[in-house]
Amino acid sequence: MTRKLASPAVQAEVTAEYNGLPHARITDRDGHADVFTNGLPDLELWFMALGGHFTSQPAPDGSGVVMWTLTTDTDHGHGTPIRAWALALDTDQLDADCADAIRPHAA
Questions:
Q1: Mean pLDDT in the chain?
Q2: How many CB atoms lie within 10 A of CB 45?
Q3: Can you tell me the distance from the alpha carbon of 53 to that of 92, in angstroms, rounded to the nearest whole number?
Q4: Which residue, 87, 81, 76, is CA-closest to 9?
Q5: 3-state DSSP of the chain
Q6: Which of 10, 27, 78, 98 is least surrounded by CB atoms within 10 angstroms?
Q7: What is the pTM of this model?
Q8: Which residues pair with 53 in a beta bridge?
Q9: Closest Cα partner for 49 from 25, 84, 24?
Q10: Half-sphere exposure for 32 (CA within 13 Å, toward CB)
Q11: What letters, b where the CB count within 10 A reaches 16 and e where it falls short, cover 48-87?
């Protein structure tokens, strides 16, 4: 039996440091790591390094703010699950290199 040596947040932080990925905060939640970034450019860097897919959800108050989520993991489909987050204006768009990874809006 293999023993897990670190929490999801620690594993995500090691992955971030190894890949030079920016982050504001990393926390554990229900067996995955939540990574909070400073905006879409940071979120795009996580995607370029680790892959995954994006969803977005507009703020319910109609403020023009969108929460983008990248669902990925620490090892290209075989590692600890990660959800990386970024807030953006609804007029901001992901880089065209990321367009194929966008999934329908979150429910």
A1: 91
A2: 18
A3: 17
A4: 81
A5: CCCCCCCHHHHHHHHHHHHCCCCCEEEEECCEEEEECCCHHHHHHHHHHHCCEEEEEECCCCCCEEEEEEEEECCCCCCCEEEEEEEEECCCCCCHHHHHHECCCCC
A6: 78
A7: 0.89
A8: 71
A9: 84
A10: 11
A11: ebbebebbbeeeeeeeeebebbbbbbbeeeeebbbbbebb
pLDDT in tens, 23-70: 999 999 999 999 999 999 999 999 999 999 999 999 889 899 999 999
**Tokens 């367009």, residue located:** 99
pLDDT score recorded for residue 76? 86
Structure tokens at 32: 């995955």
Inter-residue contact 39 to 24 (CB < 8 Å):
no
pLDDT band at residue 104 under the 50/70/90 scheme: confident
